[in-house]
Amino acid sequence: MTLSIPANANIGEHLMRVKTNYNASVPENPCEETLFGETEDYKVIIDFASGISVQSLETNELIILSKGIISFN
Fold first, then answer.
1. 31: in domain
2. What string of pLDDT tens digits covers the 73 residues of the chain?
3. Would you say residue 65 lies in a domain?
């Protein structure tokens, strides 16, 4: 994913909301509920920088394991 911070962004602390939605589009409204998704809030601090650069995060894996079906009687 590409995250672009505008050159004219206000300096200081901001809230960044990240949403996902399984098998459907992510709603335009960041406060709208989704049936199967996840919403995470992050505190972002924009401060004075000496230039523009590209930062990358370490590549990670998501591994989903199926352990079988659990049945409750």
1. yes
2. 677 778 788 888 888 888 888 888 888 888 888 888 888 888 888 887 655 556 666 666 656 555 555 544 4
3. no
